[in-house]
Amino acid sequence: MYRHLQRTILVAILVAVPVVASAELNVFACEPEWAALAEEIGGDNVEAYSATTALQDPHYIQARPSLIAKVRQADIVICSGAQLEIGWLPALLQKANNRSVMPGTLGYMEASSFVVRLGITGDLDRAQGDIHPQGNPHIQTNPYNIEVVARELGKRMQEIDIDNSKSYKSNLEQFIISWSAAIERWEEQAVDLKGKRAITHHRSWVYLFDWLGIEEVANLEAIPGLPPTAAHLGKLTSEFSDGGADAIIRAPYQHAKPSEWLSERTGISAIVLPLTVGGTDAATDLYALFDDILARLNGVMTDG
Amino acid sequence: MRTIFPASAFLLLAFTVPAAAQAQDDDIEALRAAVAELRADYDSRIAELERRLAVAEQNASQANYAAQQVTVATAPSTGAASSAFNPAIGVVFQGQVRQTDALDGEEEGYVLGETEVIMQANVDDKFRAWLTAAIALEDGESVIEIEESWVEATALPAGFGARFGRFASGVGYLNEKHSHQWDFADQPLPYQVFMDRRYFDGGVQLRWLAPTDVYMELGGEVLQGDGGSSGLNSRSLFANVGGDLGTSSSWLAGASYLEPDDSSSISIAHFVWKWAPQGNWKQKNFVFQTEYFERSDTVTDTGWYAQAVFQPVQRWRFGARADALQLDADADDPRRFTLMVDWSNSEFSRLRLQLGRTDDGTDTSNEWGLQYIHSIGAHGAHDF
């Protein structure tokens, strides 16, 4: 048995060695938006991998062997942070044995550390549910946040992959210019959304609403992270029976039933908004993500 | 670039105008005329520049604000300064009410399980330390057992990782899992009999992870072991491979070899398969796992278990497990079948009902238990 195992291990090593990844810079992103951003700045010099898809709740991910293998090969790990990935990212980092992406190094980046975080509460108690002491982690729905993260990520890419730093620098500059133009376009499209009221499944959209001036009037989850209860939905039904909200919004990975149930009883439209790249068929990249979010919001909240 | 240059030249001119104007009054009118002319010519370009300036200012203030926020968030307040580096501390509470009709059954009625106290933190940029202390009642006496007390090197090169101290051996699948992570209230029979529930020991562990897309981990340990005056007479080797099948399924398989002492050895093979629709674990998921054990000294004993746990909706899980031993010395080979259902209000609380039927070859006995697992404080990430 012992000798047999040794031989198996030797064969495994021989098989393993030739399949080493060849891209200049391997980026491991916890969420699709950061993988998309790394590709915007990195272009062909970057191989970006997203640990999650837009159809998965990034708070509840298994620390899968395939993800450990990807972190092992990464030059940069970029995640939303603010404890969004606390249930699995530490396990990946601990098992991946990759010292260049450990917290505290240049290769480890929590995007939320660089933006103004909303929803920071001083009073912390788990009885309040799934709350994050460092604030709401879903920062990607405000395009200004994307830009701040882009600058930091671009800076780090230039430092880590010095050979291609010129390319990262010019790509970043190009991205900032076209992103700023896009923001202006989106803000024009969003003029009529200001002051509209939304019911959401979970507090996933606070940064989007902060940007567009939309008011969040209720959540389907009575306690963040716990499934919506019948009692709470009943209460919302009577509260919003005469309108009082312009849309019921959920992310693609959130359960459809509660919002459809409330929509049927109140007549308020229930919609799915892509929370990240890939969340809808139209949201193919970062630009298309915001195009689609605004198109969908305008579709139910305004006449245009 | 061509559009920016004349516009910035104009701006430069505009800024120098007041100084020049003070010096030479005569030129004022001429300059004003020039400015007016330029303004007319470059009106659209100025508008464009102003827009960019506005965006830049917005970004700058956003970045500034963010920087302040980071400083505020990371700077400990004076009151908390002395506790700012406290390790992450978590406590897991466990216990159960159980009943059995077996003649030589275990304790019945309310049984307090181990209360696990876990503390962990980075020591510095190269080491991380972990303590698991289990507080338990044994025959009415409170005992504190050090389950794990280890230090891990976090900055080794080339995919190596090392751990030293007392830890749960990396062999098998369930051995490293804390009792609060188990899907049933008790360990499968081979773990109970061959591993003394979980094999803990003191020593050194070295692990290496291949730089491949298929997960491939090799590890070995030198441990203190039982018996033998010289000590360090236990060793182990283990290899794990794993990956994904599409976005919904992932798997892990492994082989391990453990010599707990000079005269015996245990070989283990394990396989785990996890599934969730589109990989979205929160609402619905399924886990199948199985392990096979072979222990040899002068004789050879074997054992196995296979279990499946299904979560059809958030909070509720249903599980079934079969486990058995084939003991060379014993004509009565035990077989057992267990069912469980558990309800988790959140990630931190779980209530579980478990029913079991054991056939030890001559007699059949039944048991049931109602278990709770609650955790407070910091809770580390769980392995696959």
User: Shape of chain A from CA axes?
Assistant: globular
Tell me the name of the CATH homologous superfamily of the largest domain in chain A.
Nitrogenase molybdenum iron protein domain
State the low-pLDDT regions of chain B, or none.
1-21, 68-79
Number of strands of chain B: 17
Q: In DSSP terms, counting alpha (H) and pi (I) runs of 4 or more, how many helices of chain B?
A: 4
Please describe the biggest sheet of chain A, giving its number of strands, its sense, and whether it closes into a barrel.
Answer: 4 strands, parallel
What does this structure look like?
The complex is a heterodimer of chains A (304) and B (384). With 304 residues, chain A is an alpha/beta fold. In chain A, 42% of the residues lie in helices and 11% in strands. Chain A folds into 2 domains: 21-185, Nitrogenase molybdenum iron protein domain (Rossmann fold, 3-Layer(aba) Sandwich); 190-301, Nitrogenase molybdenum iron protein domain (Rossmann fold, 3-Layer(aba) Sandwich). Chain A contains 10 helices and 8 strands. In chain A, the strands form 2 sheets. Chain A has a 4-stranded parallel sheet, with helices on one face. In chain A, strands 6-5-7-8 form a 4-stranded parallel sheet, with helices on both faces. Chain B is α+β, with helices and mostly antiparallel strands and 384 residues long. Mean pLDDT of chain B is 85; it is low at 1-21 and 68-79. Chain B has 2 domains: 4-75, no CATH class; 151-377, Porin (Beta Barrel). The chains are: A alpha/beta (304), B alpha+beta (384). Chains A and B meet through helix 1, helix 3, helix 4, helix 5 and helix 6 of A and helix 3, strand 7, strand 8, strand 9 and strand 10 of B.
